[in-house]
């Protein structure tokens, strides 16, 4: 591959900061932009606000002479950003609107898995609240999922009939998520341990990234409500070679076969959210993008030039990925109250001299104002480090936290705990 590529990353979280950080290491990179970006990204890329429509964005793409767009979040993918720019002849990495239904509609994803025999929890679909309640009565601990995109808030793990019935009322009658909750999936609760696998996909080509584990619950010991993710590590030994082989044979191949049979092309990252029980993987969810915070631990482990890998993939060539040894761990520093209500605009102090050089800070909800850094979201900063092993990476990350402070800063002190337990056994 030769030449220089001006790249635009869409999004403004820790995932996009990690993408920009990694892309900047490529000798193939020309200029780099990120929209809307955040406080940390604005120090290493040109940032601008996203205009409301794709046509407005196309104008900026032309002005800035952008050769490649890489899409972070699911929303623009579900809205068809890829279809739009492909039609306009602009290279864009991320699946089209149809393929994005794998994340954008739980009903579509579940029916797809059933049709192509991809292992997942048994389920039923309802658009009638009374019928859904009847079904709920017969189930112990079911999981209720709003069909559409709900920014991670549309999944209820109900512990009792009343809790489940309350969720159905909120989704289907109060319509707290609008049309996204008109239909629901009710599925059986799966047991086991979760893992995330990001896969580069282009047509029939695919390359697995290193398996990681997110920590979705807000409190230590995986207690409390689910968040976007409070920390992650990679690789996870939960996904050993034999589990990986099963993921490939039982999940990845049928998914790609299914997409081909449905005439749906896929170019981008497919995220397999898995539950692994006694070595058997089942799909909890698909995402049609890089995970957050998984990306913050996966990209630091990648030896390849990310830009080259993406370009190869888009030319229908295999990405041929290779990975560093050791481990990477990431801790999310959140605003007190998240995933519920929290304060914004809180000043953040980062004492650079107290942060070792090999510790990375990926910003999420931050803005720069008058030369200072302020909070602007629930997940504020990611602190990540690679190390010889998970213990080493953990020590570096937690050690660096002494150099960071903001009022109401909250984080989990136990990121990686399941891996540490597994290693002791
Ligand atoms: P989803 O968006 O479908 O992945 O759901 C979000 C989170 O809810 C998952 O990461 C799991 O922690 C949990 N979850 C979803 N479905 C199930 C299930 N069938 N059994 C157990 N946990 C689940
Ligand atoms: N970490 C979960 C997600 O990216 O959806």
How would you concisely characterize the structure shown here?
By secondary structure, the chain is an alpha+beta fold.
CATH homologous superfamily assignment of the largest domain: ATP-grasp fold, B domain
| Architecture per CATH nomenclature, i.e. the level-2 architecture of the largest domain | 2-Layer Sandwich
Q: With helices defined by DSSP (H or I, 4 residues minimum), what is the helix count?
A: 13
Q: What small molecules does the structure contain?
A: adenosine monophosphate, glycine
CATH fold group of the largest domain: D-amino Acid Aminotransferase, Chain A, domain 1
Supply the helix-strand structural class. alpha+beta
Give the CATH class of the largest domain: Alpha Beta
Number of domains: 4
State the low-pLDDT regions, or none.
none
Average pLDDT figure: 96
Helical proportion, percent range? 25-40%
**Through-space gap between termini:** 47 Å
How does the major sheet shape up?
6 strands, antiparallel
Q: Overall 3D geometry?
A: globular
Strand content: 25-35%
CA-atom Rg in angstroms: 21 Å
Number of strands: 25
Could you please describe the fold and organization of this structure?
This protein has 425 residues and is α+β, with helices and mostly antiparallel strands. It folds into four domains: 5-97, Rossmann fold (3-Layer(aba) Sandwich); 123-187, ATP-grasp fold, A domain (Dna Ligase, domain 1, 2-Layer Sandwich), CATH 3.30.1490.20; 191-314, ATP-grasp fold, B domain (D-amino Acid Aminotransferase, Chain A, domain 1), CATH 3.30.470; 327-424, Alpha-Beta Complex (Glycinamide Ribonucleotide Synthetase, Chain A, domain 4). It has 13 helices and 25 strands. The chain has helices at 14-23, 54-63, 74-78, 81-87, 97-104, 106-115, 129-137, 161-173, 241-261, 294-298, 306-314, 390-400, 417-424, and strands spanning 5-11, 29-36, 46-47, 68-71, 91-93, 123-126, 143-146, 155-157, 184-187, 193-202, 205-208, 213-214, 217-219, 223-226, 231-234, 267-277, 280-287, 327-335, 347-350, 359-363, 366-369, 372-375, 379-387, 404-406, 409-410. Strands 12, 15, 18, 20, 23 and 25 form a six-stranded antiparallel beta sheet that branches. A hairpin with a 2-residue loop joins strand 21 and strand 22. Helix 5 crosses helix 6 and helix 7 runs antiparallel to helix 8 (161-173). The radius of gyration is 21 Å and the shape is globular. The protein starts with a strand and ends with a helix. The structure holds adenosine monophosphate (AMP) and glycine (GLY). Adenosine monophosphate is lined by residues 121, 143, 145, 155, 157, 187, 189-190, 194, 216, 226, 273, 284-285.
């Amino acid at each position: 591959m030769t030449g220089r590529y001006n790249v635009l990353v869409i999004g403004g979280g820790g995932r996009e900061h990690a993408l920009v950080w990694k892309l900047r290491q490529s000798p193939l990179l020309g200029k780099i932009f990120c929209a809307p970006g955040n406080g940390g990204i604005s120090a290493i890329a040109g940032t601008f606000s996203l205009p409301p429509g794709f046509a407005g964005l196309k104008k900026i793409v032309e002005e800035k002479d952008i050769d490649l767009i890489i899409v972070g979040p699911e929303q623009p993918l579900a809205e068809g950003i890829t279809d739009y720019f492909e039609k306009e002849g602009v290279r864009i990495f991320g699946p089209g609107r149809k393929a994005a239904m794998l994340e954008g509609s739980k009903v579509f994803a579940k029916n797809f898995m059933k049709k192509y025999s991809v292992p997942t929890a048994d389920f039923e679909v309802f658009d009638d609240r009374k019928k859904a309640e009847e079904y709920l009565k017969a189930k112990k601990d079911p999981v209720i999922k709003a069909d559409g995109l709900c920014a991670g808030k549309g999944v209820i793990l109900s512990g009792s009939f009343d809790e489940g019935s309350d969720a159905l009322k909120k989704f289907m009658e109060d319509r707290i998520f609008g049309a996204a909750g008109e239909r629901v999936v009710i599925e059986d609760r799966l047991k086991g341990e979760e893992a995330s696998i990001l896969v580069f996909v282009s047509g029939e080509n695919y390359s697995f990234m290193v398996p990681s584990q997110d920590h979705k619950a807000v409190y230590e010991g995986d207690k409390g409500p689910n968040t976007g993710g409070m920390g992650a590590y990679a690789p996870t030994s939960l996904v050993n070679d034999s589990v990986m082989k099963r993921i490939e044979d039982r999940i990845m191949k049928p998914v790609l076969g299914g997409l081909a049979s449905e005439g749906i092309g896929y170019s981008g990252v497919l995220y397999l959210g898995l539950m692994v029980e006694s070595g058997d993987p089942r799909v909890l969810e698909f995402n049609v993008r890089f995970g957050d915070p998984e990306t913050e631990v996966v990209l630091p482990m990648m030896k390849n030039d990310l830009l080259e890998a993406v370009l190869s993939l888009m030319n229908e060539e295999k990405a041929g990925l290779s990975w560093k040894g050791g481990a990477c761990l990431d801790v999310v520093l959140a605003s007190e109250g998240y995933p519920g209500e929290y304060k914004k605009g809180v000043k953040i102090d980062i004492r650079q001299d107290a942060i070792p050089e090999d510790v990375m800070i990926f910003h999420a909800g931050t803005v720069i104002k008058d030369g200072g850094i302020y909070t602007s979201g629930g997940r504020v900063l990611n602190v990540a480090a690679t190390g010889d092993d998970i213990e080493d990476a953990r020590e570096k990350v937690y050690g660096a936290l002494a150099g960071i402070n903001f009022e109401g800063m909250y984080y989990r002190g136990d990121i990686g705990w399941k891996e540490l337990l597994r290693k002791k056994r």
